[in-house]
Amino acid sequence: MHNQDQALIFELSTPGRIGYSLPEMDVPELDLSALLPDGYLRTEEPELPEVSELDIMRHYTALSRRNHGVDSGFYPLGSCTMKYNPKINENVARFNGFAHVHPLQDESSVQGALELLYDLQEHLIEITGMDEVTLQPAAGAHGEWTGLMMIRAYHEANGDMNRTKVIVPDSAHGTNPASASIAGFETITVKSNEHGLVDLEDLRRVVGEDTAALMLTNPNTLGLFEENILELAEIVHGAGGKLYYDGANLNAVLSKARPGDMGFDVVHLNLHKTFTGPHGGGGPGSGPVGVKVDLIPFLPKPIIAKRGEEFVLDYDRPQSIGRVKPFYGNFGINVRAYTYIRSMGPDGLKAVTEYAVLNANYMMRRLAEYYELPFDRHCKHEFVLSGRRQKKLGVRTLDIAKRLLDFGYHPPTIYFPLNVEECIMIEPTETESKETLDSFVDIMIQIAKEVEENPEIVQEAPHTTVVGRMDETKAARKPVLKYQQA
After folding, report:
1. How far apart are the first and last CA of the chain?
2. Which of the ends of the chain has fewer CB neighbours closer than 10 A, N or C?
């Protein structure tokens, strides 16, 4: 963006303009010198912008239109599940009895809120096939860490102090090894086979008496279902380890398969993904964790329990890993997820899976002629392409992502997972129409043809955005974090 444009957009202040009107103060003015040391008191008025209410509204509205969100456009970020957030969820979360509740209120005065949380736990138990759930963790990665801390506590309670290693696939989410490290474990990588699934022989090689757990998502990060999941569970359990389910891809199996039935001992859920809480923008998220019966004693406290007709916060849990978040979780996100689950019902949740899988396979087959398809088989909710063909012509996957911006699309996930060269990872979600999918696919096909006929237009993209192509290395290493007037 040119400096002149910056001035036109940001330098709106005109002396004498005001955007508010306050009544005259009807209380005595405070003597600030009696409250603050001299060095903290202003001697001059601050230089604040002087703008009208209309100016400021148009300014921020214009800025918001330059942002991309799921309410304004297609968001095909593979592995992130950026699907539409139904507005009924927002309406219910704003009910006075939910929005104005305070976590320090006595239990007797928040029975409705506690009942909702308890009922949400019960729904998540049924959906995942677990035996108990905690709603405390604030996001998926926080849930990972919480689950791993419970696994660690379980092994230590059994006197098994040598289980110090957590196995993760080479296609795993980056948060998996990070969470394991923060929980005090060493991470071991297990390879994928030629089909994109966990290599059973390599798993048998790395598993052992020092294995605390295997972290896995199913379907995996390539969008492929781990067909040998029962054998995987048998290998890990046979070595005395636990099986951890990363719930990032749960919307691919809702009401079709349950992690608990696959042999998983712990599962975290991303309520801001699978269950349509707002995703991004700094949060808040929600990452409940479900466990099988032998891990229940180690759940964070308090647990929301039902005693007779009363809902209570149960702190009497001597083996608990302790509290992992202030109070009882991100309540507003939990309300949204509960609303979504109750609105959808069992048939609706099953339809989520069916349409997510249908949409992904439809897009994959349409694009397979124009981009390499590393794993030519049915996918689940997301699929992975490779830009190797385009790379040979001098165009990288990053260039393709930049070119998509010219057509108003948020790019898909790129260069992840790491075991696919020039990776392009696309997740359409179940909420998008066929018209939207076709429009996106048509643009991807157009870009593939541009690479062959006019590669420069892709290499130099984007062309129509407010900010052109940046030096991304410099932006990462030497960021400018404040506005600088020319």
Report:
1. 12
2. C
pLDDT tens-digit series, residues 138-155: 999 999 999 999 999 999
With beta carbons less than 8 A apart as the criterion, state whether 207 and 215 touch.
no
**DSSP annotation of 422:** T
Q: In the numeric block, which tokens belong to residue 145? A: 């860490």
Structural domain that includes position 425: 352-477
pLDDT tens figures, 229-277: 999 999 999 999 999 999 999 999 999 999 999 999 999 999 988 999 8
Q: How confident is the model at residue 30 (pLDDT cuts 50, 70, 90)?
A: confident
Same domain flag for 93 and 59: no
Can you tell me whether residue 61 is helix, strand or coil? helix
CB atoms inside a 10 Å sphere around CB 410: 17
Q: Quick one: pLDDT at residue 485?
A: 66
Is the pLDDT score of 290 beyond 60? yes
Q: What value does the CA radius of gyration of the chain take, rounded to a whole number of Å?
A: 26
pLDDT at 350: 97
Q: Is the dihedral of CA 289, 145, 415, 236 positive or negative?
A: negative
Q: Are residues 126 and 264 located together in one domain of the fold?
A: yes
Give the strand pairing for 266-269 and 289-291. antiparallel
- Residue 254: which residues within 8 A CB-CB, separation 6 or more? 127, 274, 349, 350, 352, 353
Residues 183 and 142 in one domain: yes
Residue 51 has phi, psi (to 5 degrees) of -135, 155
- DSSP classification of residue 29: P
Cβ count near 160 (within 10 Å) = 13
Q: Please check whether residue 283 lies inside any domain of the structure.
A: yes
Task: Give the strand order in the sheet containing 266-269.
Answer: 132-134, 289-291, 266-269, 242-247, 211-216, 165-169, 186-190
Name the phi and psi angles at 414, rounded to 5.
-125, 155
User: 3-class secondary structure for 104-122?
Assistant: CCCHHHCHHHHHHHHHHHH
Give every CB contact of residue 363 below 8 A, 6+ residues apart in sequence. Answer: 383, 426, 428, 437, 440, 441
CA–CA dist 309, 298 (Å, integer): 26
Q: Would residue 189 count as lying in a domain? A: yes
SS3 324: coil
Residue carrying structure tokens 């981009």: 371
For the stretch 59-76, what's the b/e string if a residue is b when 16 or more beta carbons lie within 10 angstroms of its beta carbon? eeeeeeeeebebeeebbb
Q: What are the pLDDT digits (tens) for 335-368?
A: 999 999 999 999 999 999 999 999 999 999 999 9
Residue 127: name the closest of 119, 139, 138, 115 by CA: 119
Structural domain includes residue 78: no
Helical pair 175-182 and 140-157, crossing angle rounded to 10 deg: 40
Closest CA to 226 of 184, 262, 255: 262
For residue 387, being part of any structural domain is answered with yes
Closest C-alpha among 414, 486, 398 to residue 76: 414
Three-class SS of residue 180?
A: helix
